Amino acid sequence: MKTDHILNDEALKFLEDYLNNASPTGYEAQGQQIWMNYLRPYVDEFITDTYGTAVGVINPKAAYKVVIEAHSDEISWYVNYISDNGLIYVIRNGGSDHQIAPSKWVNIHTKKGIVEGVFGWPAIHTRKPGKEENPKLENIFIDIGAKDKKEVEEMGVHVGCVITYPDSFKVLNKNQFVCRALDNRAGGFMIAQVARLLKENNIELPFGLYITNSVQEEIGLRGAEMITQRIKPNAAIITDVCHDTTTPMISKIEQGESKIGDGPVISYAPAIHHIIRERIIEAAEENEIPFQRHASSRYTGTDTDAFAYSNGGVASALISLPLRYMHTTVETVHKEDVANVIRLIYHSVQKIKAGESFSYFD
Questions:
Q1: Do residues 7 and 338 touch, judged by C-beta distance below 8 A?
Q2: What is the enclosing helix (H) or strand (E) of 79?
Q3: Which residue segments constitute the domains of the chain, with CATH numbers given?
Q4: What are phi and psi of 98, to 5 degrees?
Q5: What is the pTM of this model?
Q6: 3-state helix, strand, coil in the chain (%, to 5)
Q7: Within its chain, how far is the Cα of 189 from the centroid?
Q8: Residues of the chain with pLDDT under 70
């Protein structure tokens, strides 16, 4: 499968639309609708749950169930306090980075529609050399052009409104995708392409495949915790992003070495089931898909942990997409890595046999 076929014009249009739509944690419904509309021709039915996780199912009547999963939410902010002079202070909704906030445009989501604003910051001329304050949660603020608190409220902004960045999809040097929220709507895009390729190539799976786009990962894997109890899968392959550690100020000794353009990253961790991981490695080697390896300590920090330790234990593995500048508005991934993660999940699911227990003692 050539990259241009996997990432065809229709797929890339979906990726752009999907990324450009805001889907902050707890408010993923509109993005989930875009995702389901794209996936609809490639699945037999959908499952949705109370908090908005969406699942496209192939072979829903099969007793044996395999999940491929990503998460749909992006980091954001909440309005936390409005000062008398009309400036807005925030708290995190997920792991939003305070250091990148100053001078950024924002969209504040209200019942009256989007209210635009900017994260302001004191001009360099007014700051004392050697005594400059760094941006931190306590001192970053949003200016929406209001003269006072009353005008802010008249514009529809109140405590609890969610705030996102408007930065949109771009392609850098013809081979790198740049956008906010590639963590992890790139994952939702990739598992949707796996479903598409299975359909296009008339692959008959001997089990039910649950293409799962979970909510609320960014605040503690919550959507995955809920949906795994609903599906009760026998096995799961999770995809998320991981750090490209080759850019400045990252210690490879501490973080390991992964690089965009060098292929999918296969993880080693207590939650990773050895048998499924080795199947994934076999799929990569048999299909000449380049890959990298990453070791985690106590946990992966992804929805893999939620699936692995649910329902008495679900055999789970993690395939990651290397990404630069995580939790910024310029998250960057390589086009070939995106295609190769899709290839690897596509071939890996076909190596799972219905009925197997993945027991180390069989």
A1: yes
A2: strand 76-82
A3: 3-74+180-349 (3.40.630.10), 76-164 (2.40.30.40)
A4: -65, -25
A5: 0.97
A6: 30, 25, 40
A7: 9
A8: none
